[in-house]
Amino acid sequence: MIDASSRLRRAILLSDALLVKRIIRSNPGILQNPDFKDKSNTSLHLASQAGFEEIVELLVDAGHEDAEISRNTDWDTPLMVAARHGNVDVGILLAARFPRSIPVTNKSGLDALALACLNPASTPLVSLLLSHPEYPAPADGRDNHGDTPLHHASASGSLKALRILLSAGADPTAKNAYDWTPLAYSQTVAAEVYFKNLVAELERRKNEGIRGEKERREEAIKRKYAGVRLVTEDSETTSSRPSDDMSRSESSNSIFSPIDQRGVFTPTVGKSNPWVNGGFETRARAWSGE
Hints:
By secondary structure, this protein is mainly alpha-helical. The chain has a domain at about 140-225: Ankyrin repeat-containing domain (Serine Threonine Protein Phosphatase 5, Tetratricopeptide repeat), CATH 1.25.40. The protein is about 50% helix and about 0% strand. It has 14 helices and no strands. Helix 10 (about 160-165) packs parallel to helix 11. It starts with a helix and ends in a 29-residue tail after the last helix. This is Ankyrin. Keywords: ANK repeat, Repeat. InterPro entries: Ankyrin_rpt, Ankyrin_rpt-contain_sf. It holds the Pfam family Ank_2.
């Protein structure tokens, strides 16, 4: 009689969801079911490698990853396995359900992004892994040999992945441990030319953006100070002199004010009056009228 572990692996490879569900229900202890003859790959590794999305979802819902993220002897997660084999739908599902596994690396220092760049079929996963809001994959992450995702995308001929990575800010001049840049790993001359054109285009856009930002700042400064008149020494001297258009009456008033016209006999200064106190300059009492 075939043991339950073998029957579960066989049901997964046959993509028989009903049989997988029945075996798990009858034997809940073998849900993960690591295969020690095959790098300790679990049930989820096996389904992810085969690309059976329905089986993957069934295993996840059954609690396959409740305790921790499954890893085989190479430290590969099910997400890495899906990315390596080009199973995009499974990769999208696992990244959504277990986003904390996105930046995890294996023994070789490869994460899910690097493995997705190694397989052109997994290109749709590249932008997803780079743009995750909580656990984004680093665009310039390095493996044990110093290779970045750009190195892997260039070596695999994944031209779309090259464009996505460069747009995400990956450094095209990064060198690995052997002093090689990603451009050196181009598979064909056409791929090398395409890579160079991508870098030139992004550099041109970057320069245009910097120039546009500078122009916007200058325009903002002009608008800010548009209503302010710059006062210089010459303008102050000119504004302090009377205008040539000033009327004669205004000039006369500015020179001969009513205060100057009072002379010595103003209402505040008493005039000598011979009828008051014998002609002395003293203030007379107010007449009461009696």
